[in-house]
Amino acid sequence: MQRKKPEGTELAEWCAQWDKARHAEKIDLAASCGVTYDTAKHWRSECGISIPPRTDALPKMQIPIEELLGMKPAVNLDFVSFDIETSNLRADFSIILSAVIKPFGCAPMVFRADGYPEWKTDRANDSGITKDIAEELAKHAIIITHYGQRFDIPFLRAKMVKHNLPVLPLMFGIDTWRIAKNNFAVSSRRLQTLVSFFDIGEKGGVDGGLWMDAAYNGSKEALDEIVKHNLIDCEVLEKLGCISFPFTKSIPRL
Predict the structure, then answer these.
(1) pLDDT tens-place string over residues 178-201
(2) What is d(CA 134, CA 234) in angstroms, rounded to the nearest whole number?
(3) Alpha carbon of 42 to those of 3, 26, 36, 110: distances in Å?
(4) Exposed / middle / buried, residue 235 (Cβ in 10 Å: 0-12, 13-18, 19+)
(5) What angle do CA 51, 54, 56 make, to 5 degrees?
């Protein structure tokens, strides 16, 4: 086909067609003039006719924090908040007392050590609760924790290896402690400090006597209080996760 460059009014109409066309349509438009796509693209850029602004761009979403905290997703995002309570900070010197897994916007699932038969006769054996926590956690894709990539997840993994359980599948983690460390100039990145500062709930302090009474004496009343603490942690963690999402540049593997 003979090369034919549009001129005058015809050029203006041709440019309008070019600006609206998709890539494949632009190739056809160039061919209709007997030139390559690159040549036609050069014609368009050098013709002096301004390019109209795009009107099909999606507007930026701006949602107040209050609305975001009260919002439920339209689809299952498969986010869960996760928190464990243990008798000590090292897996080889302690046991799991309780854990809470809370799917986003749904009721929490509670795991407590005194619900397993080993609690009465072999309290040091936390294989049952470890197995149940790991199996439930493995069903979810993205885990929200606070300092969880340094404590909750490594602690659980150590217990899983100890009890010959299969490793967790490919999962991703959002650690609100790490996000706070990188983005918020506050006096402390402790969960209690952030909850109070952002006014997203009430989180009480820790009474070490409760943990000792539960772990060493098997006190149901003490464990009841620990579970309440565990539940509150997961509830406020879900809200802190909402606040943290805009500052999440990527979600790393656990």
Answers:
(1) 999 999 999 999 999 999 999 998
(2) 17
(3) 14, 12, 10, 64
(4) buried
(5) 160
Domains and CATH numbers, the chain: 1-57 (no CATH), 65-247 (3.30.420.10)
Query: Is residue 160 within 8 Å of residue 129, measured between CB atoms?
Result: no
Question: d(Cα 6, Cα 147) in Å, to the nearest integer?
Answer: 64
Q: What is the Cα 206 distance to its own chain's centre?
A: 26
Residue 32's identity, in one-letter code, is S
pLDDT in tens, 125-179: 999 999 999 999 999 989 999 999 999 999 999 999 999 999 998 889 999 999 9
Prediction pTM value: 0.70
Report yes or no: 129 and 117 within 8 Å, Cβ to Cβ.
no
Distance CA 28, CA 140 (A): 47
Q: What are 86's strand-pairing partners? A: 96
Query: What are the structure tokens assigned to 103, written together?
Result: 């799917």
Single out the residue of 157, 125, 163, 161 nearest to residue 143, CA to CA: 157
Kind and range of the H or E run holding 181:
helix 176-183
- Beta carbons of 244 and 145 less than 8 angstroms apart: no
Length of the chain: 254
| Ramachandran quadrant class, 154 (left: phi over 0; alpha: psi -120 to 50; beta: rest) | alpha
> What are the tokens at 211?
């943990």
| Residues 24, 22: Cα–Cα separation, whole Å | 6
CA pair distance 97, 220, nearest whole angstrom: 11
What's the DSSP call for residue 111?
E
